[in-house]
C-alpha cells in the first residue's frame, strides 16, 4: 500500500497498527519505525537517553516526509502561478484563424 503523492511505501499493515494501538495521527509511512520505538520506550520506562538511535531514525523519516510534502506544495504553487500569469484571450480563436 502506498500513500498518494508519496515516494515511500507503507510498510506497517493496518492490523499491526491496531495491535500496537498507534494513534491515528501517527499512522503514516514512518509507522514501521514508530511501533518498535514505542515498545522500546515502554520497556525502558521512557528514559530519553535509552532509545536515542531509534528516535533519531523515526524523526529523520518524519522529516523526510515533511520535506517531500513541502516540495510537492511548492510545485503546485508554481503551476498555479504560471496559470495565473497567462493572459486570458478576449476574443475566442476561430477554426480558420
From TrEMBL:
<dbReference type="GO" id="GO:0005743">
    <property type="term" value="C:mitochondrial inner membrane"/>
</dbReference>
<dbReference type="GO" id="GO:0005758">
    <property type="term" value="C:mitochondrial intermembrane space"/>
</dbReference>
<keyword id="KW-0249">Electron transport</keyword>
<keyword id="KW-0472">Membrane</keyword>
<dbReference type="InterPro" id="IPR008698">
    <property type="entry name" value="NDUB7"/>
</dbReference>
<protein>
    <recommendedName>
        <fullName>NADH dehydrogenase [ubiquinone] 1 beta subcomplex subunit 7</fullName>
    </recommendedName>
</protein>
<keyword id="KW-1015">Disulfide bond</keyword>
<keyword id="KW-0813">Transport</keyword>
<keyword id="KW-0496">Mitochondrion</keyword>
<comment type="similarity">
    <text>Belongs to the complex I NDUFB7 subunit family.</text>
</comment>
<comment type="function">
    <text>Accessory subunit of the mitochondrial membrane respiratory chain NADH dehydrogenase (Complex I), that is believed not to be involved in catalysis. Complex I functions in the transfer of electrons from NADH to the respiratory chain. The immediate electron acceptor for the enzyme is believed to be ubiquinone.</text>
</comment>
<keyword id="KW-0999">Mitochondrion inner membrane</keyword>
<dbReference type="Pfam" id="PF05676">
    <property type="entry name" value="NDUF_B7"/>
</dbReference>
<keyword id="KW-0679">Respiratory chain</keyword>
